[in-house]
Amino acid sequence: MEHIHKFKFFAFLAGFLLSFGISYSGMINPNKILAFLDVAGDWDPTLLFVLGGAVVVTLITFRFVMRMPKPLLSHKFMLPTLTKADRPLIIGQLLFGIGWGLIGYCPGPVFSALALGYAEPVIVMAAMIAGAFLYKWLQAAK
Amino acid sequence: MENFTPVTGLIGGIIIGLAATLLLWFNGRIAGISGIFNGLVTNKKNHDTFWRLLFILGMVAGGLAHQHFIEPSYQPLNAPLWLLVIGGLLVGFGTSMGSGCASGHGVCGLGRLSVRSLTAVLIFLSMGILTTFVVRHVLGGL
Lengths: 142, 142
Hints:
The structure holds 2 protein chains of 2 kinds.
Chain A: H1 4-25, H2 30-37, H3 46-65, H4 87-103, H5 107-112, H6 120-141
Chain B: H1 6-27, H2 33-42, H3 49-69, H4 81-97, H5 102-111, H6 115-138
Helix pairs in contact in B: 2-3, 5-6
């Protein structure tokens, strides 16, 4: 039996906190992302500190969490089953990287910035949805 | 490096890591934003739909809360529409095909010591850097 209301509350809270961290770190700003990617220009290495800070935390906490028989509010951990880098992963990440380098938006900052009163994140979100459906349709057509 | 902000970057990164910890510890789910969102929009309604929606709403609220209570840190790119659309399509398609983005593969995957995720991170980082280099230093901007 899942503690369904608590489960939903923690989904909201995790999204809230994640987005607050993205905003606080400055990664909500696509100009700052592009300044990181532009290693040959006026380089801004901040992203390395953001990713480093986040991964140091998950490296420690995930070890403890994964030793639990099950999560607090659910009957089991839902983890990715694939462990090897296959063709779809490689091609997909190549395409994602090109898109990221073109506009400096990845999915997280799009949602953090979605309701701040600018059209840009809304446009990017709409195009992201179209891209996700395009992949799904190509898969279904196979 | 005039815009380099390592301290807020590190603190924001730690908050991001704690948010991912919360979702795994309580709900048993990986905080992969593209996976949560793509599943929300491309899957038929199922028992995961509502918590995914709440997670995304939490993200939208987290960005708003930071802007109102701490300080505005978002600046639009002011990129042309066609570029936002092409970039967004690539991000949506690529993260669907490559099963994840910076949060799922970066923050969570590296925390789980996943080789598949490490491969993903190295590919999207190097493609992002390469793309930005071509756009800014070969083409002279778009």
